[in-house]
Amino acid sequence: MGDFNAKVGDERVEDVVGPSGIGTVNERGSRLIEWCQINDFIIPNTWFQNHPRRQWTWKSPGDRSRNKINYILIQKRFRNSIKTSKSLPGADCDSDHISVMCKFQIILKKLRKAKIILNSKWTY
Fold first, then answer.
1. Which among 5, 4, 8, 32 is positioned nearest to 21, based on CA atoms?
2. Are the C-beta atoms of residues 32 and 21 closer than 8 Å to each other?
3. What Gene3D superfamilies has UniProt attached to this entry (predicted)?
4. Between the CA of residue 94 and those of 70, 90, 117, 118, what are the distances in Å?
5. In Å, what is the CA distance from 47 to each residue of 1, 19, 42, 114, 121?
6. Helix (H, G, I), strand (E, B) or coil at 50
7. Cα(first)–Cα(last) distance of the chain, in Å?
8. pLDDT of the residue at 39
9. Which residues are CB-neighbours of 51 under 8 A, at least 6 positions away?
10. Do the beta carbons of residue 78 and residue 104 sit within 8 Å?
11. For 36-71, what is each residue's pLDDT tens digit?
């Protein structure tokens, strides 16, 4: 999770970037996408279609442009655990960046220890 200052665009790229991004890809965005492909990560912010004010994460001074440059990255194996991802424009965090949240649900499997039974009678 972090401020990558990367624009990944609104076009789907394999299983990494979804169709709900904003704008076009920049150089940092292409490097982030490449890193995600190599390390098996996805960008959930781009997979959920939200209201436009719930998509952008940065507003330029003077409110001339709005971009999505903050992302949450999750490993592909946890893809089905993600319920929603959106920005929270009303949160007061004293920054020109908007907070991003992701709801997910993980079901953990309880591992049981194997019982070791030792036979006290050894036969030769």
1. 8
2. no
3. Endonuclease/exonuclease/phosphatase
4. 16, 11, 61, 63
5. 16, 6, 9, 41, 62
6. coil
7. 61
8. 92
9. none
10. yes
11. 889 999 888 888 787 777 776 777 677 677 777 778
CATH code for the part of the protein at 2-104:
3.60.10.10
Residue 16 CB contacts under 8 Å (≥ 6 apart), including other chains: 33, 36, 37, 41, 42, 43
pTM of structure: 0.69
Tokens, residue 92: 């007061």
Using alpha carbons, select from 38, 39, 36 the residue that is nearest to residue 17.
36
Mean per-residue pLDDT over the chain, rounded: 78
Q: What pLDDT, in 10s, does the model give residues 11-36?
A: 778 888 888 777 788 888 888 888 98
Total residue length of the chain = 124
